[in-house]
Amino acid sequence: MNRLFVIFLAALLFVSCQPKPAQQPEKSAEQLAQDEKMEWWREARFGMFIHWGLYADPAGEWKGERVNGISEWIMARAEIPVKEYEKLAKNFNPEKYDAEAWVKLAKYAGMKYIVITSKHHDGFAMFHSKASKYNIVDATPFNRDPLKELAEECKKQGIRLGFYYSQAQDWHEPGGTYWNIEQGKPHWDPDLKREPLMNYINGKAVPQVKEILENYGGLDILWWDTPRGMTEEAAKALQAVTNDYPNLITNNRLYRPWPGDFQTPEQHVPPTGLDYDWEVCMTMNTSWGYKWYDENWKSTEELIKMLVDIASKGGNLLLNVGPTATGEFPKASIERLKEMGHWMQQNGESIYGTSASPFFKLPWGRCTTKKEKGITKLYLHVFDWPKDGLLKVPGLEGKVRDIYLLANPKQHFAWKFEEGDLHVHAPSVIFDEINTVIVVKIRGDINVVSNKPRLKEGSILLPADFADIYNPGYGEHAVLKGSGSESVIANWVDKRARLEWIFDAEPGKYRMEALMWSAEKAELAVKLGEQKVDIEIDSTGEDYELVNLGQIEIGESGEKSISLQSAGNTAGNKQLMYLELIKL
Ligand code: H79
Fold first, then answer.
1. How would residue 390 be classed by pLDDT, with cut points 50, 70 and 90?
2. What's the pLDDT at 496?
3. Which of 55, 133, 330, 398 has a Cα at 20 to 30 A from 336?
4. Confidence class for position 493, pLDDT limits 50, 70, 90
């Protein structure tokens, strides 16, 4: 007995002396509270932005002329005097507005929250406000509060709600800011006598923010915008109002550089994840507000892939709809939302509550992941279904238990491990033309050996589909077409569009070459760490050519990044280029 007891004690001691697995540093009480507040938002992944205001009536056209740019900016772009713009309210009567239908469609699309403009830069409140008569109930024949109706429907149908509020820019008020106020430019309307910012902040913005936070059943999100011309004093006055609502989630646009609860990449998807909560806001065409001739619609396929891409990097997508002055969603938006909904009904599990991809790059698509009860699930989002019958998951190690089709779990796939990769047998039938989701169910944890480019047989290959593309928010976007050896970066036009590759390097001197096509003579700025080289290249003629980009030297081994940007010519002309790969 005694001996047994001693052995038992010894065993106990042995177990308790084992080194503990590496632990995350303890979270502070503040971080835990933040996690709790953000929990629903992080799970949601997909929301609807709605830009609706008086600008839906002119819809991008003023006095018979088309006005360039985003439609909600028409007052500034066409320099419409305040009194004249105000007249739009007299005719604003969106009788076809149906909050129930809007919410129903958002839910069908798979969206978990809605953020709607309560007041945009034009200063017109889309809710009943005592602080300013310039609102939809007091100034239009509509005589309803559409945001009250929306808030009630959201409660009823169980979806979260946030309001957008333009706190700084208010083109209607003598104290409000406007686009180029920081450059010392006057407001375009000389009849708007200027007043100090704080008159507007204390007289309208603060009272209105109190109204929206108080009167709409408890908002989940307050979405600030364009802190242009803001002061710390003004920001503090507004923040004091939101401080009374500890569960309210706000973005990072109240005041620069205040972080808020989440970051807001606008009109572009960041190339990699950010170590902070973030939400991409994105239009389906070009304009946020309704613009009748804006036909630049993204396809459903692009939108689904965008949502997946964002989820694979750990972010949310806030996808915009710009309703008309009659109160309806444009047909093109409805179509896309329905089609996205169709995909989400079958594949939503691979989006909600998932974490970012554990892989460096996947040539055929994206990955999201979830861990529950000792099971790791990898959701493989296959954009390009393999033609050779094998889906290769690079560098994956783990105890695979099952692989099946998310949209039909009875459809199982055979697999084997080969040369460090997981090979999934992929039949020739394509299950989903846009994005087939395959679930890899794994016991316990996984390990991934990175497929980051490195020196192999004397060179480092940086293919187009391994590039991170940094596009400007407003401007021409370089895009990746195709995958693997057929991938190419197309429409590389804007000088601000930057391509970047991350790789592991050994010390040495490298010759740099690019397989590319350029319409004209072009200048390229190449950057590797601190080294910067400007290179002039000739037009490549009809076909792709291996273009010499000169020499670079790498002093120490380790992770490096190389970036390419068009340096433009002195005239600032755009240069059209296509690029297949970089070879070092
Ligand atoms: O509400 C949407 C936009 O109206 C607002 N934010 C999103 C969510 C926004 N305000 N400013 N911007 C976005 C960015 C500025 C865009 C500009 Fe322009 C393009 C500035 C100069 C060119 C449009 C045209 C605005 C001024 C001139």
1. very high
2. 87
3. 55
4. confident
Please state, in angstroms and rounded to a whole number, the distance separating the CA atoms of residues 221 and 242: 10
Whole-number Å distance, alpha carbon 135 to ligand 1 midpoint, is 22
> Per the confidence metrics, is the pTM higher than 0.85?
yes
Ligand 1 atom 3, closest CA: 288
Q: Which domain holds residue 393?
A: 365-448
Report if residue 175 sits inside a domain. Answer: yes
pLDDT band (50, 70, 90) for residue 24:
low
Mark whether 519 and 543 lie in a shared domain. Answer: yes
The H-assigned helical ranges of 45-174 are: 74-77, 82-86, 88-91, 99-108, 136-139, 146-157
Asked if 340 and 383 sit in the same domain, the reply is no
User: How far, in Å, CA of 98 to CA of 190, rounded?
Assistant: 39
The residue with tokens 């109706």 is: 149
CA atoms within 13 Å, Cβ hemisphere of 15:
5
Does one domain contain both 336 and 434?
A: no
DSSP state letters, 335-352 = HHHHHHHHHHHHHGGGTT
- pLDDT per position as a tens digit, 143-168: 999 999 999 999 999 999 999 999 99
**Residue 310 forms part of a structural domain:** yes
Counted domains in the chain: 3
> Best mutation site among 51, 66, 70, 166 for ligand 1, i.e. most ligand atoms within 8 A of its Cβ?
70
